[in-house]
Specification:
379 residues; alpha/beta; Aspartate Aminotransferase, domain 2; Aspartate Aminotransferase, domain 1; 12 strands; binds ligand P1T
Length: 379
């Protein structure tokens, strides 16, 4: 089945109870048992829920995985992966990461005795010096949030396999429409389904997808034991969102390109970060591992002035100043004070997240209105 068909039918079948084409919202915590253990595969909704299961099947199908798991947030999904680890284990992760991921790693899991190495993976071989007997996991975000760096998944997977280390890829920015990390050698794909998968800024959710049964069993055990599942209503909304993922992403890519190109030639703009530019440091890798460049664009205005950056985001009218990304509406963020505020300033600035950096999640409105809005706010 081709991807565009999978978004609508992947892993889905009519509900067995009454043949409903869309999975009903099974708003129930529990299920009748005729005798202890005598049930239809559903005993308690933390463990299994038919609406969530339909969504998990859709996740698996989209990413060419065998098993999907849905969580109450992207952070809950990452938290579940980290719980595979034991004190003394080490993780190598991209140095440019969503601020919440950095915070979870450094403020929670470091306290449990896990060591994190934040490495510039734009050159894959940079990770080799950090691998030792304790290394159990490589955590990759690509494109990265918010600098839009591109990491070569095939090259990292090759190193991971040589050293028998798990590779997890946060595929939130690319979505499976543009990039399928399991096919490139990753063991685990993670999503903040809050973003493009849900697509309408109306839910918070996370996803994990894997191919390997033993790994799926381990992650399911953690999901059930820790309990950070999503509810059936949100599972329904995510399934509904996924059905238009391919058409939304096509427009996100078109509008993202138009916005990136507009900013790149604007006299007040210093630098635009977008993997579609031929002079982006890893443009060739992006071209090889992604089928488009997505709808995320970051930039810095000339003068690198904090007050001017704040004035710019306040003056936008079509772009909404808000946390998050990946919805149909265009959003604008100021990473240093919003999504990446939990990363210390000197760490942030080392990777380019300066106080004047602005991040755009380019939505699917009319391109002309978006450009006009950016133009008036820059003016
Ligand atoms: O917000 P949540 O669903 O828990 O997902 C966390 C997360 C994980 N990974 C990436 C790449 C993300 O971008 C996020 C969430 N990011 C934002 C809220 C943001 O505005 O960047």
């Amino acid at each position: 089945m081709k991807f565009n068909t999978k978004t609508i039918h992947g892993g889905q079948k009519p509900d067995p109870a009454y043949g409903a084409v869309m999975p009903p919202i099974y708003q129930t915590s529990t299920y009748v048992q005729t005798t202890p253990g005598g049930h239809k595969g559903f005993a308690y909704s933390r463990s299994h829920n038919p609406t969530r299961q339909a969504l998990e099947n859709a996740f698996a199908s989209l990413e060419n995985g065998a098993f999907g798991l849905a969580f109450g947030s992207g952070m809950a999904a990452i938290d579940a992966v980290m719980k595979i680890l034991k004190p003394g284990d080490e993780v190598i992760c991209t140095n440019d990461l969503y601020g919440g991921t950095y915070r979870l790693f450094t403020k929670i899991f470091e306290g449990f005795g896990i060591k994190f190495h934040f490495v510039d993976m734009q050159k894959a071989s940079n990770i080799e010096g950090f691998i030792n007997e304790q290394t159990k996991l490589i955590w990759v975000e690509t494109p990265t949030n918010p600098m839009l760096n591109i990491i070569d998944i095939v090259a990292i997977a090759k190193i991971a396999k040589q050293h028998i280390v798990l590779l997890a890829v946060d595929n939130t920015f690319a979505t499976p429409y543009l990039q399928q990390p399991l096919d490139l050698g990753a063991d685990i794909v993670m999503h903040s389904a809050t973003k493009y998968l849900g697509g309408h800024s109306d839910l918070v959710m996370g996803a994990l997808i894997v191919k390997d049964k033993a790994l799926a069993d381990q992650l399911y055990f953690i999901q059930n034991a820790s309990g950070a599942i999503c509810g059936p209503q949100d599972a329904f909304l995510a399934l509904r969102g996924i059905k238009t993922l391919h058409v939304r992403m096509q427009r996100h890519c078109e509008n993202g390109k138009a916005v990136a190109e507009f900013l790149n030639t604007h006299p007040k703009v210093e630098k635009v970060y977008w993997p579609g530019f031929e002079n982006h440091p890893n443009h060739d890798i992006a071209k090889a591992q992604m089928s488009g460049f997505g709808g995320m664009v970051s930039f810095v205005a000339k003068g690198n002035n904090y007050d001017e950056a704040i004035k710019f985001v306040e003056n936008l009218k079509v772009f909404t100043l808000a946390e998050s990304l990946g919805g149909v509406e265009s959003l604008c963020g100021h990473p240093a004070s919003m999504t990446h505020a939990s990363i210390p300033k000197e760490e942030r600035e080392k990777i380019g997240v300066v106080d004047s950096l602005i991040r755009l999640s380019v939505g699917i409105e009319d391109e002309a209105d978006l450009i006009k809005d950016l133009s008036q706010a820059l003016g």
